Amino acid sequence: MSFIEINNIWQEYGAHVVLERLNLRVNAGEFCSMVGASGCGKSTFLRLLLGQEAPSRGTILLDGKPLQAEPDRSRGVVFQRYSVFPHLSVLDNVTIGLELPNARLLGRLFGASKREARDRAVWMLQKVGLGQALEKYPAQLSGGMQQRLAIAQAFIMQPRVLLLDEPFGALDPGIRKDMHALLLQLWGETRMTVFMVTHDLSEGFNLGTRLLVFDKVRIDPHEPNAYGARITYDIPLNEARLAEMTNPQPDNVYALRS
Length: 258
Ligand SMILES: Nc1ncnc2c1ncn2[C@@H]1O[C@H](COP(=O)(O)OP(=O)(O)O)[C@@H](O)[C@H]1O
Ligand SMILES: [Mg+2]
Prior knowledge:
By secondary structure, the protein is of the alpha/beta class. It is 32% helix and 25% strand. Strand 7, helix 5 and strand 8 (193-197) form a beta-alpha-beta unit. Helix 3 (111-127) packs across helix 4 (143-156).
């Protein structure tokens, strides 16, 4: 049994078929990069994995059980455009996830563990280059900084399944490289299962253990919405090289995870 099993799913909105007969098996710890033409259903697929929407047909199993209808903490997400809490400071935006009652790792935080959570949030914010902006509010940040805040927010939760929808597209090349290194470090340490949509083919080839290509196999030029996309290529990537790139550094703050 695979960690995630996607059996023959379709997603239709009225007469518009977005995904059709999509099948996929993913083991825990795999890192799937996903590419495909704009509008072919990649974000839709992530929403299905998140449990935000149910497929029109077919089933999605997580650990052999049907996916919960509601998103829960086991699945974290970074959307293409930042989504942070405008009324919370940068630091609070990142610690709040850890303070929620059902946070997977730490539960409710008091005293020492609250300080540890804060330390870890500061560590994560330094990693995304926001160490100097802890007390700022999102409106005071540039778009790229808000996006990095959203990345820190998702990464700190260490979800079992991390869903990334073009998370780095809006970032400058240098910062994007830093974010790649951070993602690989966290993935190397936690072996969370990652699904990352990207429009940058080289990013897809460089980061994943597997590259999934979404495309339509049938096209009716008179009715462009009559047929949906599915995964047309499933390319294994060089995991040994990726393991070299991750090479996690010992880090006391981060080690509080266990
Ligand atoms: N809730 C919805 N209702 C109707 N159409 C939708 C809905 N969500 C997505 N679509 C359509 O599904 C298609 C795929 O969208 P999307 O998954 O965002 O593509 P991608 O992320 O690959 O660019 C688009 O044509 C979009 O307009
Ligand atoms: Mg999209």
